[in-house]
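Write out structure tokens for HEAT repeat domain-containing protein.
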Amino acid sequence: MTLFKLERNAEFEKLITHLEESSNPDIRKRSAEILGSLESETGGTNLSHDEVVDALVEASKADDDGRVRAAAIDALDQYGQDALEQFIGELSEQDIDDVAEWKKAQILARGLNAEQAELRMAAATGLGRIGEDNVLNQLVARLEDPDSRVRKRVARALARVESPECVPALSRNLHEDQYDVRVEVAYALADIGTQNALAELVEIADDDDEVLRRIAVDALGRLGSVEAVEILAGALSDETEMVRRTAMFSLVQLLSEAPPNASHQVREKIVDELEEANERDSVQPLIEILGRSTETAQRRNAAWLLGRIADDAFRTEAQDALIETLADDDEMTSKFAATSLALLDGDGLEQRLIKLVETDTKDEEMRVKALFVLGKIGGDRSRKRLSKFVERTESDRLRKRGFSALSKLGGMEMPSGDLA
């Protein structure tokens, strides 16, 4: 049975057998990685949580391949602090059970100077989980460890601690270390998220490496500043699709992250930059966000932006996405979709919305919002069709919204709110 099938079926016993007995280090390494990823499923197997941890601890200590030992330590991290401490305790011959967190951090910090690289790796990972800052200096010092595997785990630990004090040290590794460590450092700076941490990432937003560019533009979405907008807008024309897509997600995120005193300025800057960008690079990613994102703030902002930047070439596609969003579960998202649609009149939009309103099988919320838009963009055709519609519909809510639209089109006067 392949490792893929063993993972899919959560075959813990067979995975442990591969970890302990396979002559192929790649198979042992992958088995350790899978065992870590399956941590949440240990309760439904014949093997106990402790038995899996024991196997990973043994691999961390005794496997003759450093890659396997590193993978086993990372898997132990998935099983929690107790699993890591079991490994550290066995290798260092220290009992660290039932010790206060600050004291435990001091004990783990001593492991940062151990001769075995694997113990230094585990100590760094454990310190990241504890999050105590009384040993921060010792942890930061390990960013100069001769073993890149240790430096990577230190960067991950500092990302968990999220201390601004370690930004200068991380920044040095961001620009000078080997590639895989630079990636971990970039993620750490992004997680720390302070202005100076994110400013460091600005410098790698045009790096030759695609992964580093993507991390940078992803992190810059948290900066909430006008300065970040220009960099992200430039990344919309990146040669790599993943970087372009990430840049758009970050621009949308910026609308949420901008501080209140700069929100209007950031919003205007984003619209200006997107209007100047290639429309395919700006409109299509927004449509994708509306169709796929599960983040409410992202979908709200994407709906708002589409009405302000979609031009003739992608007007119909933008209309399609916004019409589908009229029935969104989030009321504010559906309102933004309606107001954006009203800004994208043309290409037969009026007729499409009339047909939507008159189709009884369509979602009622979608039809309500369509009536609102028709009240904004409709003409004589809408007035005639809606006059008949309000007479025959059995829905009180649709009738009320229909009268509201008619009143705006010069028809019947009927007091009503816009989008209730």
